[in-house]
Structure formats: C-alpha cells, structure tokens
Amino acid sequence: MAGAVAHAWSGANARKYEDSAATREPWLVKWTIITISLAFFGFFLLLPLVAVFTEAFRKGVEAYFAALSDPDALSSIKLTLIAAAIAVPLNLVFGVAAAWLIAKFQFKGKQFLISLIDLPFSVSPVVAGLIYVLIFGAQGWFGPWLQDHDIKILFAVPGIVLATVFVTFPFVARELIPLMEAQGREEEEAAVVLGASGFQTFWHVTLPNIKWGLLYGVILCNARAMGEFGAVSVVSGKIRGETNTMPLHVEILYNEYRFSAAFAVASLLALLALVTLAVKTYVEWRAAQSFKDE
Amino acid sequence: MSKAARRVLPGFNLSLGYTLVYLSLLVLIPLAATFIKTSALTWEQFWQVTTTPRVLASYRLSFGTALFAAGINAVFGLLLAWSLVRYSFPGKKLVDSLVDLPFALPTAVAGIALTAIYAKNGWVGSIIEPLGYKIAFTPWGVLIALIFIGLPFVVRTVQPILQDLDAELEEAAASLGAHRWQTFRQVIFPALLPALLTGFALAFARAVGEYGSVIFIAGNIPLVSEITPLMIITKLEQYDYTGATAIAVVMLLLSFILLLIINALQGWTSSRTGRDR
C-alpha cells in the first residue's frame, strides 16, 4: 500500500512476458491461473461490494433515501465529516514534516523513527481506542482534572478526533517518504543555493514533485478516517444524534435489525471507498505519465 | 556529506522537533499508558487476567484464524499478483484497482456485507446451510472476514517485486534447458519469497487486531467465536479497565514482535532485490 505512486506502473507491459517462449506458460496453465485468481477475487472481494448496494436498495429507492435523510443519519454524517476535517489536515502536516525530515536529511535512528511512525498500522483499533480511555477516562490520568474543569474529551467529539488521528497517523507519511527519497534533494539544494527561502523551496520545488503522492495519501487517510470503526466505537459512547459517526450508526441500525437502513448508510461509505480507489488509479496513471515524459 | 546536506537544506530542526513532539503526544505517550496502567498488577495478577479460559479461547481463535487466513492469502494473493503482472486479460485494470478495496472500504461495512452473504438467507448461506454447513456466526465466518481484509497486503507486496524481476534470468534458465516449472521453483520463487513472507506477516498482523469486519459475522459466542479485541471491549463495558489493559498489553507486545519481524523481512527483500521498500 505504501508508495503506490513511487512504484507506479503501467499495466500494459504483460505483453513482454507473453511474447517470449522463455517467460510464458502454456495456454492451459495461464488460463487456469487467471480463472482461479479471478474466482478468488470475485468471491472474496467483489461479492461483498455488490452485496452492500443490493441490500441497500432491497426495500426500494424511497426507503433508501428515507434512511439517509433520517435526523440521526444526518447527524452521523455531519460528525464523520467534522472528525475527518480535523484529523486529515493534522496528519497531512505531520506527514509532510516527517517525510521532509526522513527523505532530505541523514541522521541516526532514522530507521527506528520510520518504524515508530508505522506503529499505529500494527496496533489493533480497539487498543487505539483504549489508550485514550486510559488517559482521558473518568479513572484515567487526566479524568478527574477534566471533570473539575467541565471539559469533555471522551464520549465527545475530541475523543473521536483523537482516535481517528491515531489510526490514520502514518498514511500521508508512508506515501510521501518513498516518493521523496526517490527524488533526492538536488533540486531543493539548487533552489536554496540560488537564494530561495525554505518555504519558497518547498512550495515551488518540492510540492509540484510530490503533489500526486500527497493527493493519494490524503485521500487514503480520509477514507480510513471516515470509515474507522473499532477505535471510534471505544471512545464515542455511541450517543445517538451526538457522538455517532457513520460506521457506528451502521452498527446500531444493523443491531436493531433495520438492515436496509444500515446498508443504505453503508452504501455511502462504500461509494466513498470506490471514489478513493478511482482517485488512486488516476493518480497512478498521472504518475506513470509524468515518468514517461522524463 | 551529511553535515553539509544539513546545512544546505533548511528545516532539519523544525521537522525533527515537530515529528517527535507530534509522535510522542499522539502515539508514544498514550501507548505507554497501557504499560504503566498494567504495572499496577503483580505478575500473578497479570497472568491470571490474561489466561482465563475465555481469554485463552480468544487467543486461539484470533491467532489461529489470522494465521490460516494469511496462509490462504499468501497462496491466492501470489496467483493474483502473477496474473496481474504476467498476463493480459479483459478487465485487468479494473481488477488491479479493486484489489485495494479492503484498504478503502470501512471495516463495519465489510462486516455487515459479509454477514448478509453468509447468513442463513444470504446468497451463499442459503445454498450451504441446507447442506448442513454453517459459516456465519462460527469461526469460519471469522476466517472469511480475515481473508477479505488481508488479501491486498500480499498482492501489493509481491506485485512490485514480480514486476521488477529481471526477465533475462528466466531466459537464461530456459536456454540452459530448465522446464518452466523448474524455473519458477528455482529462480522466480526464491526471489519472491521475502516479499511473500512480508505480505503474509502484514496480513497476519492486521488480521490479529481486526475488529470491525469480524464482530458482525463472528456471532461472538463465548469460548467459541470471540476474538481477542472483543475481549478488551467486553472488559471495558464491565468497567474492568485493568483487565482490558492487561489483554491490550499482550496484543501490543505481539504487534511489536511482528513489527520487528516485518522490518527484518523488508530488509531482506531490499537486499535480495536491490530495491528500497
């Protein structure tokens, strides 16, 4: 997943393998492999996607839009947008700073730092939620102090934002680090030597080079931010109309056996996932184009 | 060299400081909280909390199904990556884009979709349940969900390595009289192995901690189909913060070990292929 843009490829070059006797398989082997892998893909990946939209429209278009315009659904959509609107820019700034540090400078402990940045990827979302309960919960480190000052973090918007920031922490950085490392630092050094300020160098030299990778990192970060379930469910308290994000609203509807409504809200999230993948494909294509131009 | 570079480009101190502060505040200090909270327990207490029969059953389920799912994904992920790199077929671009679906689709959405498919009246459930098989609300359901979320990890780690593999090696093998299967086993597969193991480990690491896509289809029957992350949630709902944290520490330690293994594997991949990860 990391470095999709840095490793952009054009899918058309399978010809080169198929045209040479040394690198191709017999016709029967080829089509057996394709059939098995596509069957696996269709059964495990495509089927759930199709199921979301089928179930969403099971009770008709009217029921679908009724489920989406329900006040609780609307408030969950609003909260999801708010959480993403705060978490994504925070991780965007961090991602750019961390990638600048790691790609443009040599220093001790760099590999260790990269591992630490990756850490949230390998922490269970439930544990990610738990850590903020331990800090801000009623029995937590700051719990009593927060209560005295009437500040709500847990079971309120700030807690949801914190959990979202944690789970989407590495996305932008992971996308930018390999890309910026591959580009080296000669262009920036030239700009600085010619008298550009640090900010000018970043804005006019670095940013145009990394814009596609940055866009992809942001869109992936956003998809995960809007879709996060485990971490957010621990810190949200699931107060309907107040601290329910879209995925939590899906869960509540589902547990109340309001399946069509649950899938209607879920279909919005599935649509977001498809848009994310479309942008990713476009970005890879653009990166491959610019690679060809050079 | 490094000192000179540091002097030419600005922003070293700023970006280092910012990165470290942000990382510490949001990730490191909160994670340390789990260990500090758990240190209030004695060893015996810690051991007792983390090895009750119900928790032990959840480890067996989480680790067992995660391992099984990662194994299945390693086999079929390799086949899929092979098809995408080596063959042309209609709809390939679309398949290639959709492989990342589990990264982009919210886990709760995947969870309810899989449950709908495998439940008694679903597309698959309605066919197999009359035959006496049950997938939804059993450990098999957990396995299906973990296969779903793990597949792109294997495909996306193997694919670029396969892409960069020098075709001349295979031509050399063929010209020396190797059969195609021999070439695969003795030339291609050894080159892919580090990446394949990395993908396997990534899929496993993700599967062990997975929550959203699993809890709907698992049925969450104590001792049978409860995953370890659910045990944490259950303890939290009973206001047993210490118990929840102790189990979280077990999971975190496993994550750290896996992270070390994955880093070593990635180092092996880049030394084998000469490419940076």
Would you write up a description of this structure?
The complex is a heterodimer of chains A (about 290) and B (about 280). With about 290 residues, chain A is an all-alpha fold. Helix content of chain A is about 75%, strand content about 0%. Chain A has 14 helices and no strands. The longest helix of chain A has about 35 residues, at about 260-294. The radius of gyration of chain A is 23 Å and the shape is globular. The two termini of chain A are about 25 Å apart. Chain B starts with a helix and ends with a helix. Chain B has helices at about 1-10, 10-40, 45-50, 55-85, 90-100, 100-105, 105-120, 125-130, 140-165, 165-175, 180-210, 210-220, 230-235, 240-275. Chain B is built from 14 helices and no strands. By secondary structure, chain B is mainly α. Helix content of chain B is about 80%, strand content about 0%. The longest helix of chain B has about 35 residues, at about 55-85. At the A-B interface, α1, α2, α4, α5 and α6 of A face α1, α2, α4, α5 and α6 of B.
At a glance:
The complex is a heterodimer of chains A (294) and B (277). With 294 residues, chain A is mostly helical.
The percent range for helix content of chain B is over 70%
Oligomer: heterodimer
Give the helices and strands of chain A as they follow along the chain.
HHHHHHHHHHHHHH
Which stretches of chain B are poorly predicted, pLDDT < 50 over at least 5 residues?
A: 1-6
Could you say which structural class the secondary elements and strand pairing of chain B correspond to? mainly alpha
| Structural classification of chain A | mainly alpha
Provide the β-strand percentage band of chain B.
Answer: under 5%
Number of strands of chain B: 0
Order of helical and strand elements of chain B:
HHHHHHHHHHHHHH
Rounded to the nearest angstrom, the distance between the terminal CA atoms of chain A is: 25 Å
The shape of chain B, in one word, is: globular
Query: What is the β-strand count of chain A?
Result: 0
Largest interface: A-B, 118 and 105 residues
Strand proportion of chain A, as a percent range, falls in under 5%
Shape of chain A: globular
What can be said about the biggest beta sheet of chain A?
A: none
Number of helices of chain A: 14
Average residue-wise pLDDT of chain B:
91
Output the radius of gyration of chain B: 23 Å
Determine the N-to-C terminus distance of chain B. 24 Å
